[in-house]
Amino acid sequence: MLNEFVTMFRDKTGYLIVEPAHMELAEPSITNAFSSCVQQGANRVIVSPFFLFPGRHWHQDIPSLTAEAAKEHPGVSYVITAPLGLHGLLVDVVNDRIKHCLKHVAGDEAECAVCAGTGKCRVYQLGEA
Predict the structure, then answer these.
(1) Between 62-70 and 30-39, two packed helices, what is the crossing angle to 10 degrees?
(2) Which residues are 45's β-sheet partners?
(3) Residue 21, Cβ neighbours under 10 Å: how many?
(4) Is residue 78 a contact partner of residue 68, using CB atoms and an 8 Å limit?
(5) Which of these, 51, 66, 97, 109, is most buried using a 10 Å CB contact count?
(6) What Gene3D superfamilies does this protein's entry cite (predicted)?
(7) Is 52 helix (H, G, I), strand (E, B) or coil?
């Protein structure tokens, strides 16, 4: 899903160089994504954490991993943006998701791409999970 988001982001914003990255446990790593951006011609890398709120990863881990990645590319600067946080448009996103799911459980919409095939988007009764 991260790769799909990156494609959507690239297409909608027009940024030519957009790479996904993971902090740990998955590839590409921040180091590999940083290098990929530089290989594609970036002289500044923007690291935009796809997190709702700031926490240890944003305060410590991402800056540390990004600084380590930047050591391999002297002369390339970087910026680490704020996480999504309390941005007003998130209210619209959450409300859109709620409206879609309510339409789905009413039988008026198909499942969204997130829920498709999971059976999770339904009305539950007490004791069901």
Answers:
(1) 40
(2) 78
(3) 26
(4) no
(5) 66
(6) 3.40.50.1400
(7) coil
Q: Which two tokens stand for residue 65?
A: 């991993």
pLDDT at 119: 86
CA distance 10 to 16: 7
What is the C-alpha to C-alpha distance for residues 68 and 40, in angstroms, rounded to an integer?
19
d(CA 99, CA 119): 17
H-run or E-run covering 2 = helix 2-13
Q: Give how far Cα 47 sits from Cα of 2, 21, 54, 70, Å.
A: 14, 9, 14, 12
Which residue bears the tokens 């996904």? Answer: 20
Counting beta carbons within 10 angstroms of the beta carbon of residue 118, is it exposed (0 to 12), middle (13 to 18) or buried (19 or more)?
exposed
Structure tokens at 53: 């709120």
Which residue has tokens 């690291």? 47
Q: Which two tokens stand for residue 85?
A: 């946080």
pLDDT computed for residue 1 by the predictor: 87
